[in-house]
Protein backbone atom coordinates (compact mmCIF):
# COMPACT_ATOMS: atom_id res chain seq x y z
CA UNK A 1 0.00 0.00 0.00
CA UNK A 2 1.21 3.47 -0.87
CA UNK A 3 0.05 6.52 1.11
CA UNK A 4 -0.77 9.25 -1.40
CA UNK A 5 -0.71 12.89 -0.30
CA UNK A 6 -1.75 16.12 -1.99
CA UNK A 7 -0.21 19.00 0.00
CA UNK A 8 -2.02 22.25 -0.74
CA UNK A 9 -2.05 25.68 0.87
CA UNK A 10 -5.26 25.12 2.83
CA UNK A 11 -5.65 21.36 3.13
CA UNK A 12 -3.79 18.08 2.80
CA UNK A 13 -5.64 15.31 1.02
CA UNK A 14 -4.57 11.77 1.82
CA UNK A 15 -5.64 8.36 0.54
CA UNK A 16 -4.26 4.81 0.66
CA UNK A 17 -3.69 3.22 -2.73
CA UNK A 18 -3.31 -0.52 -3.17
CA UNK A 19 -2.58 -2.80 -6.06
CA UNK A 20 -4.51 -6.03 -5.63
CA UNK A 21 -4.20 -8.73 -8.32
CA UNK A 22 -2.89 -6.10 -10.71
CA UNK A 23 -5.81 -3.74 -10.13
CA UNK A 24 -5.06 -0.33 -8.62
CA UNK A 25 -7.59 0.65 -5.97
CA UNK A 26 -7.79 4.17 -4.59
CA UNK A 27 -9.12 4.40 -1.05
CA UNK A 28 -11.31 7.13 0.39
CA UNK A 29 -9.71 10.59 0.35
CA UNK A 30 -9.45 12.22 3.79
CA UNK A 31 -8.58 15.84 4.49
CA UNK A 32 -6.40 17.48 7.13
CA UNK A 33 -5.95 21.23 7.55
CA UNK A 34 -2.47 22.28 6.34
CA UNK A 35 -2.01 24.72 9.27
CA UNK A 36 0.09 26.96 7.02
CA UNK A 37 -0.60 29.91 9.36
CA UNK A 38 1.56 28.11 11.96
CA UNK A 39 4.51 28.10 9.56
CA UNK A 40 6.75 25.19 8.66
CA UNK A 41 6.30 23.33 11.96
CA UNK A 42 2.51 23.54 11.64
CA UNK A 43 2.72 22.14 8.12
CA UNK A 44 5.01 19.29 9.18
CA UNK A 45 2.69 18.40 12.07
CA UNK A 46 -0.24 18.30 9.63
CA UNK A 47 1.77 16.20 7.18
CA UNK A 48 2.68 13.74 9.94
CA UNK A 49 -0.95 13.53 11.05
CA UNK A 50 -2.11 12.82 7.47
CA UNK A 51 0.47 10.06 7.01
CA UNK A 52 -0.24 8.47 10.40
CA UNK A 53 -3.94 8.16 9.51
CA UNK A 54 -3.04 5.34 7.13
CA UNK A 55 0.33 4.14 8.34
CA UNK A 56 0.44 0.34 8.74
CA UNK A 57 2.94 -2.52 8.32
CA UNK A 58 1.85 -2.89 4.67
CA UNK A 59 2.83 0.68 3.79
CA UNK A 60 5.52 0.54 1.07
CA UNK A 61 6.10 4.24 0.57
CA UNK A 62 4.68 7.74 0.33
CA UNK A 63 3.67 9.50 -2.90
CA UNK A 64 3.35 13.28 -2.72
CA UNK A 65 1.92 16.03 -4.90
CA UNK A 66 2.91 19.39 -3.44
CA UNK A 67 2.30 23.07 -4.08
CA UNK A 68 5.48 24.90 -5.08
CA UNK A 69 8.26 23.94 -7.48
CA UNK A 70 9.42 20.40 -6.77
CA UNK A 71 12.64 18.77 -7.95
CA UNK A 72 11.37 15.31 -8.90
CA UNK A 73 14.87 13.80 -8.83
CA UNK A 74 15.39 14.61 -5.15
CA UNK A 75 11.73 15.08 -4.03
CA UNK A 76 12.67 18.52 -2.68
CA UNK A 77 10.65 21.74 -2.82
CA UNK A 78 12.96 24.16 -4.65
CA UNK A 79 10.60 27.11 -4.26
CA UNK A 80 7.43 27.65 -2.23
CA UNK A 81 5.48 30.91 -2.07
CA UNK A 82 4.03 32.22 1.20
CA UNK A 83 1.19 29.74 0.64
CA UNK A 84 3.56 27.18 2.23
CA UNK A 85 5.73 29.36 4.49
CA UNK A 86 9.22 28.09 5.28
CA UNK A 87 8.96 25.11 2.95
CA UNK A 88 11.48 26.21 0.32
CA UNK A 89 14.28 23.60 0.43
CA UNK A 90 12.14 20.99 2.21
CA UNK A 91 13.22 17.43 1.38
CA UNK A 92 10.26 15.00 1.40
CA UNK A 93 12.46 11.94 0.84
CA UNK A 94 14.61 12.70 3.88
CA UNK A 95 11.61 13.58 6.07
CA UNK A 96 9.75 10.36 5.23
CA UNK A 97 12.89 8.28 5.65
CA UNK A 98 13.87 9.76 9.00
CA UNK A 99 10.39 9.86 10.50
CA UNK A 100 8.77 6.73 9.05
CA UNK A 101 11.64 4.76 7.47
CA UNK A 102 9.71 4.95 4.20
CA UNK A 103 10.76 6.09 0.75
CA UNK A 104 8.97 9.03 -0.85
CA UNK A 105 8.53 10.46 -4.33
CA UNK A 106 7.22 13.99 -4.85
CA UNK A 107 6.20 16.22 -7.75
CA UNK A 108 4.47 19.56 -8.26
CA UNK A 109 0.69 19.45 -7.65
CA UNK A 110 -0.38 20.89 -11.02
CA UNK A 111 1.91 18.47 -12.86
CA UNK A 112 0.49 15.72 -10.67
CA UNK A 113 -3.11 16.64 -11.54
CA UNK A 114 -2.26 16.48 -15.25
CA UNK A 115 -0.43 13.16 -14.88
CA UNK A 116 -3.39 11.77 -12.92
CA UNK A 117 -5.80 12.82 -15.66
CA UNK A 118 -3.56 11.35 -18.39
CA UNK A 119 -3.19 7.98 -16.67
CA UNK A 120 -6.57 7.55 -14.95
CA UNK A 121 -8.91 10.30 -16.15
CA UNK A 122 -10.10 12.40 -19.09
CA UNK A 123 -6.64 12.47 -20.68
CA UNK A 124 -6.46 8.71 -21.25
CA UNK A 125 -7.84 9.11 -24.79
CA UNK A 126 -5.23 11.78 -25.65
CA UNK A 127 -1.98 9.99 -24.80
CA UNK A 128 -0.65 10.52 -28.34
CA UNK A 129 -1.60 14.22 -28.32
CA UNK A 130 -0.11 17.43 -26.96
CA UNK A 131 -2.18 18.27 -23.89
CA UNK A 132 -2.17 21.49 -21.86
CA UNK A 133 -3.98 21.69 -18.55
CA UNK A 134 -5.32 24.56 -16.50
CA UNK A 135 -6.41 23.83 -12.94
CA UNK A 136 -8.69 26.67 -11.90
CA UNK A 137 -8.71 26.33 -8.12
CA UNK A 138 -7.93 28.83 -5.37
CA UNK A 139 -4.92 29.52 -7.60
CA UNK A 140 -4.36 28.60 -11.25
CA UNK A 141 -2.09 25.63 -11.95
CA UNK A 142 -0.72 24.59 -15.31
CA UNK A 143 0.95 21.66 -16.95
CA UNK A 144 1.93 20.41 -20.38
CA UNK A 145 2.03 16.82 -21.61
CA UNK A 146 3.82 15.49 -24.66
CA UNK A 147 4.87 11.84 -24.33
CA UNK A 148 4.99 12.51 -20.59
CA UNK A 149 4.83 15.56 -18.37
CA UNK A 150 7.12 18.22 -19.79
CA UNK A 151 9.44 19.56 -17.10
CA UNK A 152 12.71 21.44 -17.13
CA UNK A 153 15.66 21.81 -14.79
CA UNK A 154 13.84 24.24 -12.48
CA UNK A 155 10.69 22.09 -12.38
CA UNK A 156 8.42 25.09 -12.92
CA UNK A 157 7.52 24.35 -16.54
CA UNK A 158 3.98 25.22 -17.54
CA UNK A 159 3.13 27.64 -14.73
CA UNK A 160 0.34 29.02 -16.88
CA UNK A 161 -1.30 30.71 -13.90
CA UNK A 162 1.52 33.23 -13.87
CA UNK A 163 1.41 34.29 -17.51
CA UNK A 164 0.72 38.02 -17.71
CA UNK A 165 -2.91 38.40 -18.80
CA UNK A 166 -3.53 42.10 -18.03
CA UNK A 167 -0.74 44.66 -18.46
CA UNK A 168 -0.16 46.51 -15.16
CA UNK A 169 -3.04 44.53 -13.66
CA UNK A 170 -3.72 43.25 -10.15
CA UNK A 171 -0.65 42.28 -8.11
CA UNK A 172 -0.22 38.52 -7.82
CA UNK A 173 1.13 36.49 -4.88
CA UNK A 174 4.19 35.77 -7.07
CA UNK A 175 5.01 39.49 -7.10
CA UNK A 176 4.18 40.16 -10.76
CA UNK A 177 1.30 42.24 -12.07
CA UNK A 178 -1.76 40.97 -13.94
CA UNK A 179 -1.17 37.19 -13.77
CA UNK A 180 -3.87 34.83 -15.09
CA UNK A 181 -4.38 33.65 -11.48
CA UNK A 182 -5.63 37.12 -10.53
CA UNK A 183 -8.53 36.81 -13.02
CA UNK A 184 -9.43 33.16 -13.54
CA UNK A 185 -8.92 31.52 -10.14
CA UNK A 186 -11.90 30.71 -7.97
CA UNK A 187 -10.83 33.44 -5.55
CA UNK A 188 -10.66 36.03 -8.35
CA UNK A 189 -14.05 35.08 -9.78
CA UNK A 190 -15.71 35.27 -6.34
CA UNK A 191 -14.07 38.70 -5.84
CA UNK A 192 -15.24 40.06 -9.20
CA UNK A 193 -18.76 38.65 -8.87
CA UNK A 194 -19.08 40.28 -5.46
CA UNK A 195 -17.90 43.59 -6.89
CA UNK A 196 -20.63 43.44 -9.54
CA UNK A 197 -23.25 42.45 -6.98
CA UNK A 198 -23.77 39.05 -8.63
CA UNK A 199 -24.93 36.13 -6.48
CA UNK A 200 -22.04 33.78 -7.19
CA UNK A 201 -24.01 30.71 -6.12
CA UNK A 202 -26.14 31.17 -9.25
CA UNK A 203 -23.50 32.78 -11.42
CA UNK A 204 -23.49 30.16 -14.17
CA UNK A 205 -27.14 29.10 -13.88
CA UNK A 206 -28.28 32.66 -14.51
CA UNK A 207 -25.79 32.98 -17.36
CA UNK A 208 -27.45 29.99 -18.97
CA UNK A 209 -30.90 31.55 -18.62
CA UNK A 210 -29.69 34.80 -20.17
CA UNK A 211 -29.59 37.21 -17.20
CA UNK A 212 -27.83 40.28 -18.74
CA UNK A 213 -25.41 40.96 -15.82
CA UNK A 214 -24.41 37.30 -15.67
CA UNK A 215 -23.99 37.11 -19.44
CA UNK A 216 -21.74 40.16 -19.37
CA UNK A 217 -19.72 38.72 -16.49
CA UNK A 218 -19.26 35.29 -18.04
CA UNK A 219 -18.42 36.76 -21.47
CA UNK A 220 -15.58 38.62 -19.73
CA UNK A 221 -14.43 35.32 -18.19
CA UNK A 222 -14.58 33.65 -21.61
CA UNK A 223 -12.47 36.47 -23.01
CA UNK A 224 -9.89 36.02 -20.21
CA UNK A 225 -9.84 32.30 -20.91
CA UNK A 226 -9.41 32.79 -24.66
CA UNK A 227 -6.56 35.27 -24.14
CA UNK A 228 -4.90 32.85 -21.73
CA UNK A 229 -5.19 29.96 -24.17
CA UNK A 230 -3.84 32.15 -27.01
CA UNK A 231 -0.78 32.93 -24.89
CA UNK A 232 -0.28 29.32 -23.79
CA UNK A 233 -0.67 28.15 -27.40
CA UNK A 234 1.97 30.56 -28.67
CA UNK A 235 4.70 28.83 -26.68
CA UNK A 236 3.16 25.39 -26.05
CA UNK A 237 1.03 24.51 -29.08
CA UNK A 238 -1.49 21.92 -27.87
CA UNK A 239 -4.17 19.70 -29.41
CA UNK A 240 -6.35 19.54 -26.31
CA UNK A 241 -6.67 21.66 -23.18
CA UNK A 242 -7.97 19.95 -20.06
CA UNK A 243 -9.60 22.25 -17.52
CA UNK A 244 -10.12 21.13 -13.96
CA UNK A 245 -10.30 22.55 -10.46
CA UNK A 246 -13.10 24.01 -8.38
CA UNK A 247 -14.14 26.50 -11.06
CA UNK A 248 -14.84 23.69 -13.56
CA UNK A 249 -17.01 22.02 -10.90
CA UNK A 250 -18.71 25.37 -10.25
CA UNK A 251 -19.61 25.68 -13.97
CA UNK A 252 -21.01 22.13 -13.68
CA UNK A 253 -23.42 21.32 -16.54
CA UNK A 254 -22.68 24.68 -18.17
CA UNK A 255 -18.97 23.87 -18.64
CA UNK A 256 -19.27 22.97 -22.34
CA UNK A 257 -21.32 26.01 -23.33
CA UNK A 258 -18.97 28.37 -21.44
CA UNK A 259 -15.82 26.89 -23.00
CA UNK A 260 -17.12 26.35 -26.55
CA UNK A 261 -16.46 28.71 -29.44
CA UNK A 262 -13.06 29.83 -28.16
CA UNK A 263 -11.16 28.16 -31.00
CA UNK A 264 -9.69 25.30 -28.96
CA UNK A 265 -10.54 21.73 -28.12
CA UNK A 266 -11.35 22.09 -24.41
CA UNK A 267 -12.22 19.04 -22.32
CA UNK A 268 -13.30 18.99 -18.69
CA UNK A 269 -10.97 17.08 -16.40
CA UNK A 270 -12.70 14.09 -14.83
CA UNK A 271 -10.97 13.34 -11.51
CA UNK A 272 -12.05 16.48 -9.65
CA UNK A 273 -10.17 17.23 -6.46
CA UNK A 274 -8.54 13.80 -6.42
CA UNK A 275 -6.45 14.31 -9.59
CA UNK A 276 -3.36 15.21 -7.53
CA UNK A 277 -3.64 11.99 -5.50
CA UNK A 278 -3.93 9.88 -8.69
CA UNK A 279 -0.98 11.68 -10.26
CA UNK A 280 1.18 11.29 -7.16
CA UNK A 281 0.59 7.54 -7.34
CA UNK A 282 1.29 7.37 -11.10
CA UNK A 283 4.53 9.28 -10.54
CA UNK A 284 5.54 7.00 -7.65
CA UNK A 285 4.95 3.85 -9.69
CA UNK A 286 6.78 5.31 -12.66
CA UNK A 287 9.77 6.14 -10.47
CA UNK A 288 9.72 2.55 -9.21
CA UNK A 289 9.78 1.25 -12.79
CA UNK A 290 12.80 3.36 -13.56
CA UNK A 291 14.87 1.76 -10.83
ZN1 LIG B 1 1.66 35.40 -10.56
What is the element layout, followed by pairings?
Blueprint: E1 2-7, E2 11-20, E3 23-26, E4 30-33, H1 39-52, E5 61-66, E6 69-71, E7 76-79, H2 92-100, E8 103-108, H3 109-120, E9 131-136, E10 140-145, H4 181-184, H5 186-195, H6 203-208, H7 212-235, E11 240-244, H8 246-251, H9 255-259, E12 266-268, H10 275-290
Parallel strand pairs: 1-5, 5-8, 9-11, 11-12
Antiparallel strand pairs: 1-2, 2-3, 2-4, 6-7, 9-10
Helix pairs in contact: 3-10
Can you offer a commentary on this structure?
36% of the residues lie in helices and 22% in strands. The chain has 291 residues and is an alpha/beta fold. The protein folds into two domains: 2-112 and 274-290, ATPase, nucleotide binding domain (Nucleotidyltransferase, domain 5), CATH 3.30.420.40; 125-270, ATPase, nucleotide binding domain (Nucleotidyltransferase, domain 5), CATH 3.30.420.40. The strands form three sheets. Strands 1, 2, 3, 4, 5 and 8 form a six-stranded mixed sheet that branches. The protein is globular. The mean pLDDT is 93. It binds zinc ion.
